[in-house]
Amino acid sequence: MSAGPGFKPSELIFAPTGRCNLACAHCRVARGAAELSAEEAIAFMDDCLAGAEAGLPAVERVGFSGGEPFLRPDFLEAVIAAAVDRGLLFDRLMTNGDWWATEGELRRILGRVADVGFDGVLGLSYDAFHGQDRGRVEIFLKAWFEATGRRDGVEILSVRAEGEGGAEPGSLEDRAWVAELSRLAESLGGELEFAGGAAASDGAVGSVVGPAPASAAASGSYGGAEPQRIVDEARRRRKPADPDDGAGLSIPVLRFPRSYGADEAGSARAWSAQAWFEDDYCEGPGQLLYVHPDGGVAPCCGFANERPELILGHIRDGYAALMKAAARLPQPRACYELGLGARRAELEAAGVRFPGKTADICLFCDWLCSKGLN
């Protein structure tokens, strides 16, 4: 019996390539030779828009992932321009910010992406795992601000590096990265602000800078504080009625625990939670169509989305056929109709034993696929 909302995608995410200039320990993206063509992506976009007119769920936003999307500037320019022409909105354009060889190349490519109309959020993956040079990240961000004429529209997405024995968070590597993030904020003309409104200048980075202030929210890391945003005084002084001119510096910092795949060494850490995940019918990573570089389409952007059990078909199959597949295939139905929490309860009642409890719904989905329990 269906209890969830069902699969109603409202976004397309295109991963034009699996290639990346980095090799991060926590990344599970397949590094194949496949490359998605802009022509096929635009044709699929049009098919989705036509499908909405015929009564299928309306796709309203477009985002980009990878691999490193900026290794395909031709794809980005063409698909962004097509999305603008069709009145679609933009979500995140993910990047590691470290793909460029020269500053001239960097400014040229960022300028073209901005000029063709991208006005979504630039999602910068920056943490101890990625290991980018802070100076290059600074150059990248300043070039993006120059290209867009704004000092916002960027988010830093950061995976916490674990402490010894899997203690989460607070490893020396992670603390060192937070100190680097504070220095990056200063080089951009702002401050690193922590949960509770504390700034790095108040000593909120634990043993790196000094003891965390009493105002910092208790989160179990850095003396109770977590990085929240990079901000300058112009942004702090801004009032709701002020014009949205993008003059103030504001970069939210979103922090995540490390995820592990079902077959990955270290996954036992993720099965040691005190309580099970909250079943939200995959609202966080889901309700979208994720197009892989080979044209395969998954119903989410979670890390299990390369599993065959979550591939709905190919973009050449068309939107209507992919939606029929989503309504037929067991794993997408478990995610969006039954709920993975209810599926867990069914399996427990049938005598299936799990490795432990996990708060990571994507790990649970990946584990089900790996065991053929979809």
How much is the radius of gyration in Å? 21 Å
The strand order across the widest sheet is 6-7-8-5-4-3-2-1-9-10-11
> Which secondary-structure class do the elements indicate?
alpha/beta
Q: Low-confidence runs (pLDDT<50, min 5 residues)? A: 164-169, 203-221
What is the number of helical segments per DSSP (H or I, 4+ residues)?
A: 10
What's the number of extended β-strand segments?
Answer: 11
Amino-to-carboxy terminus distance: 16 Å
Main β-sheet, in a few words? 11 strands, mixed
Mean pLDDT: 89
Helix coverage percent: 25-40%
- Fraction in beta strands: 5-15%
H-E string: EHEHEHEHEHEEHEEEEHHHH
Morphology call: globular
Produce the secondary structure layout.
Blueprint: E1 11-14, H1 38-53, E2 61-64, H2 73-85, E3 89-95, H3 103-115, E4 121-125, H4 134-148, E5 154-159, H5 172-187, E6 191-194, E7 227-231, H6 233-237, E8 250-256, E9 286-291, E10 296-300, E11 313-314, H7 319-328, H8 330-338, H9 340-349, H10 361-370
Parallel strand pairs: 1-2, 1-9, 2-3, 3-4, 4-5, 5-8
Antiparallel strand pairs: 6-7, 7-8, 9-10, 10-11
